[in-house]
Amino acid sequence: MSRIEEANQFAKTCQAFVKTYIQEFNEKFAKAPIEPIDAHSSLQFNEAELNHILSHQVPRKISKNLTFQFNNAEYQLEGYGKRLSIAK
What are phi and psi of 24, to 5 degrees? Predict the structure, then answer.
């Protein structure tokens, strides 16, 4: 594809295919629930709490040259133009 118009037409063709494919797939494999009641509960956590719950966090110590170790590898923090230092 060398032109934007060709790419846009290809994208429209793909979208049409996916839409009909999903509809046919659902008609073939969909099953009615045994219980008609929706058992989903509302989200009880805000986004920050959910990110904390779903993450695996391991405390690390940062050395004076801004490095830390994880899985037998050593990583160094970059400042991207800002001077970073350990608080004293």
Answer: -65, -40
